[in-house]
Inverse folding.
């Protein structure tokens, strides 16, 4: 291998845990790779950063291109009879059946045949593909068409010439695939993610903290109104309220963060680029040590700035860029009325998620707080022109908007039974319908002459208190055994 050559057993950060993204299998420096040597051969895979002699490389490949940095190599002695070790990736839990590509560079002596295989977690071969040696040391690519769930990728020697010593060198591994957990686009946070209009109003309130619960109804942050003007720096997009639960793996593939927003959160979607602002209530002035804190997630090309806005115009006084993760921004001392604006923008597709806003420090009280007690009336006593909008709810996807589900006093659980008469006996059998909602069925026998639907209250815990319950049937249908309408 040349004068001064040295190598050590291959070590890496591979732990046997499933990868999160296909690029986790990229490998240019084996110290930080998700590939490891696998097997029990006396001559395992090694890694080295020694510069190889040009003559050795040319005799093996006909090219003077050499591996750079840290590379993996396997030395096979003449007349070797034992099984050879192979390179094995960390597991892939699930990938879609779309295009995938494993790419690598390799150098090997004459008579060696190298292959890339997909194996199950039980070491069963799913598929293998021989890597064309005539391409070496140019990057060589292969794809897997059968492997989709719970498998590993291996790079191994399929055959070699036992008449002399052989060497295999592997470097620059990369893998491209769409994992099942990958977001399909910058807005894909899972099938359960929905967004609804924000219900918050800017009504001269003074508390600036906001966790966006109840569609931000209690927050003093609101999205800017839609406008087509290009002069005021406010775009046509709107901040919405996002509801989960979010798919953690998809969020990670988009943002690189595993922590999820808590409950409801603010979200700005920019499907064709653009910008939008989330504005606070007017702040009369900011004294010393005022900070705004919140959690931030960015997808696609989206960016967020924390800006100060003049009270009566959309003029931006000052802006600071924010990065994904926990955000803390110090505000300067301001002695005139202003608003805080979270300005989301994206040149192309992108999404901004904000949660748990908290403003701390010395803020001047609002105008209403300075009025005397005789002239001050709580805002709750004032007619709200937005009452209809706030109280409207279509209950889609199970979201109850501003309503809460509760149990009526002295109500009880209703239970449904399906019973039948036979030719010989009334109410010969009864079946309890399990579950609280959805669809169910009961199979009938040719001897059944009558069917009963009987509802009753669950067993009483307190017989002295009258109780009531409710049960609703939406559809009754009689079908044959092939699920075809019988009448």
């Amino acid at each position: 291998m040349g004068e001064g050559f040295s190598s050590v057993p291959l070590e890496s950060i591979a732990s046997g845990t499933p990868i999160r993204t296909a690029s986790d299998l990229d490998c240019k420096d084996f110290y930080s790779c998700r590939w490891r040597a696998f097997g029990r051969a006396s001559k395992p895979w090694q890694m080295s950063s020694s510069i190889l002699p040009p003559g050795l490389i040319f005799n093996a490949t006909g090219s003077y291109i050499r591996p750079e940095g840290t590379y993996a190599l396997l030395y096979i002695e003449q007349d070797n009879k034992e099984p050879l070790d192979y390179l094995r990736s960390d597991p892939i839990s699930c990938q879609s059946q779309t295009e995938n590509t494993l790419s690598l560079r390799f150098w090997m002596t004459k008579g060696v045949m190298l292959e890339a295989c997909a194996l199950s977690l039980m070491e069963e071969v799913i598929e293998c593909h021989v890597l064309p040696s005539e391409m070496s040391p140019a990057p060589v690519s292969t794809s897997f068409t059968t492997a989709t769930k719970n498998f590993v990728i291996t790079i191994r020697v399929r055959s070699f010439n036992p008449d002399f010593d052989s060497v295999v060198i592997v470097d620059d591994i990369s893998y491209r695939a769409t994992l099942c957990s990958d977001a399909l686009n910058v807005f894909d946070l899972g099938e359960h993610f929905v967004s609804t209009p924000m219900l918050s109003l800017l009504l001269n309130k003074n508390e600036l903290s906001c966790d966006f619960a109840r569609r931000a109804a209690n927050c003093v942050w609101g999205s800017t109104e839609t406008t087509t003007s290009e002069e005021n720096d406010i775009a046509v997009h709107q901040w919405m309220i996002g509801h989960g639960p979010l798919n953690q793996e998809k969020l990670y593939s988009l943002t690189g963060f595993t922590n999820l927003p808590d409950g409801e959160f603010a979200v700005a979607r920019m499907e064709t680029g653009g910008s939008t602002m989330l504005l606070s209530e007017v702040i009369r002035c900011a004294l010393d040590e005022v900070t705004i804190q919140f959690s931030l997630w960015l997808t696609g090309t989206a960016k967020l700035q924390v800006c100060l806005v003049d009270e009566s115009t959309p003029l931006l006084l000052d802006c600071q860029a924010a990065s994904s993760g926990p955000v803390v921004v110090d505000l300067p001392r301001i002695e005139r009325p202003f608003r805080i604006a979270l300005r989301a923008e994206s040149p192309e597709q992108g999404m901004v998620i904000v949660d748990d806003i908290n403003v701390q420090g010395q803020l001047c009280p609002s105008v209403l707080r300075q009025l005397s007690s005789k002239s001050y009336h709580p805002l709750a006593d004032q007619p709200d022109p937005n009452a209809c909008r706030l109280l409207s709810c279509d209950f889609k996807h199970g979201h109850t908007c501003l309503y809460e589900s509760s149990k009526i006093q002295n109500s009880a659980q209703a239970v449904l039974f399906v019973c039948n008469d036979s030719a010989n006996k009334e109410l010969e059998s009864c079946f309890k319908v399990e579950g609280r909602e959805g669809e169910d069925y009961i199979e009938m026998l040719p001897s059944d002459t009558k069917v009963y639907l009987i509802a009753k209250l669950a067993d009483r815990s307190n017989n002295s208190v009258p109780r009531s319950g409710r049960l609703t049937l939406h559809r009754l249908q009689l079908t044959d055994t092939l699920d075809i309408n019988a009448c």
About this structure: Residues 194-364 form a domain with the Jelly Rolls fold (CATH 2.60.120.200). The CA atoms of residues 381 and 399 lie 28 Å apart.
